[in-house]
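We give the entry.
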Amino acid sequence: MGTPHHPTLENPPVPPPAASKLVPQNRPPLAALIRNGGKYPPEYMAQPQKPDSTIIHQLQGRIVELCVDNTVIKSGENIEIDEIHALRVAKELQLPMPKVYEAYPLPARGASIHMSYVPGETLETAWPTMSLDQKQDVALQLRAIIDTMRSLPSDDNAFRSCSGAYDVYTGGPFVDEQSFNDFVVDIPKSAPKVIREGLRARLPCNHRAVLTHGDLSPRNIMVHNNRITGLLDWEVAGWFPEYWEYIKFFERPCRHTDWFDYATDIFSHPYPEDLVDYQGIYHWVRP
């Protein structure tokens, strides 16, 4: 049997790591989690693929490592190969994002994505050191990026991930907004019927499907000298209703509470009514 071929997205090609490094870690038993205070024990964490790399970020099911050639490998059982489709779309729009050299699925579950290093630090780290004028300037830069993304319509008018396939986070693809709304309002039957029907009735079906990042948290925005150098983690990106980026902005956690005060600078079109509606939906979806 020949060696499996992994499609190269950019030159130069990067050989895949040894197979032994590609096997994702098993999930720890509940007892191990309890003993470790609810955190994954070290032996269950995603492991680096390069022995001489520097770990930038490591959580259960995923790891980001900086290689000696100043490239980055993002891998683990919680990494979705579909992210490369979003990065391709972002590249077409000349958005600030990592350049992908190679990507391939892991043998059991997850993926490995080899990409360029984005210089700078996360906005989450830089935010406390920035003046009010600097914060507003970065917010307006992000606004321009979002406006560029929204200028690219879905080529089939569907609401879907960038790959066009079913997405682990957002379901789909959905042929129209009504189908998308049905999926979103699929809340537990424990919610009173009048609430389920009332929430569904409030969701309109007249929005365009626009390119959406879906996770614009400061931890996913890289900055250098007060300029945005890259947006990270495109794994939940896709074409979704015009308001989706806005409501997801408030859903993503951030330890800097004043970050949300800049929403009026970040978004050309606010959607406060949709935001309130979805807060009601989340109340029933999330315990």
